[in-house]
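pasting for the record
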Amino acid sequence: MEPKNVSLEMRDYIAEMGAETINWCMQCGLCTNLCPWRLVPGETSEHFNIRHMQRLGQMGMEGFEDEKSLFACSTCGMCQSNCPRGVKIIDNVRAMRSSIVGAGMPPANLRPVLGGAHANGNPWSGPREKRVDWQQGLDVPSFGPDKEYFLFVCCHSCYDPRSTKIARSIVRLLNHAGVSYGVIGAEESCCAESVRKVGDEELFQKLAQSNIDLFKAKGVAKIITTSPHCLWTFQNEYPEMGGEWEVVHYAQLLAQLIEDGRLSFPAGTEQNVAFHDPCYLGRHSGIYDAPRELLEKACGGAVNELERTRERSLCCAGGGGRIWAEIPMGERFAELRIVDACNRGAQVLATSCPYCVNMLTDACKSLDRQEVLDIKDIAELLAAALP
């Protein structure tokens, strides 16, 4: 094995890019042990070791920039939430990625994604004028001074045909409850949470500042998000740039509307429904009860809990830019969720994140379980149960 050189300059550069806690790591290995990559076989699983990558970053040594290591992390937060030293592992991963992407060397699969976000304001390369196409046939108000909430629809739910059903369901629920809300539309840009996680700091700053300026100009005070990723970045990253609002995930708002008597679901499904906790709604944002309260209303009884649930929920592998990665069959975290749900007799596997819906649906198809298990967002189940 060839010796590797320690680069203090690289180490310091990584720290300046945001890896401020990288030297707190004492190399105990708990992060690697908890990592979902340990649960699946394959080349990436064999190659990716978060503890080792942190060590390479600490020393500024070559090797961390290898694509199968650096860009394999789904930023699920399992390691970070259990780290005995409180190391901000995800920030460290982001900083190390920034050192590569900032130098103009993103992985090949991310280049069109980042290029599309630069050109069109979203990573799906959807034209801005088509950002509102998901609204066709619906009564979706425009946001203005007379509206209490601004509804920010995730880019995925604006452009992906499967995911648009989530946004449409949320609109039906808000309209039924008489919520004062509106959308802005084509002027909106991606929240850029995933853009920052893959290491394009410059693009994140551009898109985030564009949104902050737009929201302020429109007089936004309260935001409803359709995605936990948007929720997290609005609450945790935009404030440092001057963007501060009251932000809620749709599940939180709907749970409150039920409590206030503004929503009820007499036509709930009788199917056996299991729930998958999204990482960015659960571990990252601490929201566990609201989606379960909604599901209990939608299916008229207790939720079928999976083996790994709440704080221990297994990542779908869509975070940290992994939604754009090509993963071979048999190496997908989401396949473990499908097997678990089927083993527990679930007929529906529900979640509350468009990324999770995408990853779980693909896994269900790859396992040929789509005839026995339906993947749904909670909003879809609730909308179908409306009187």
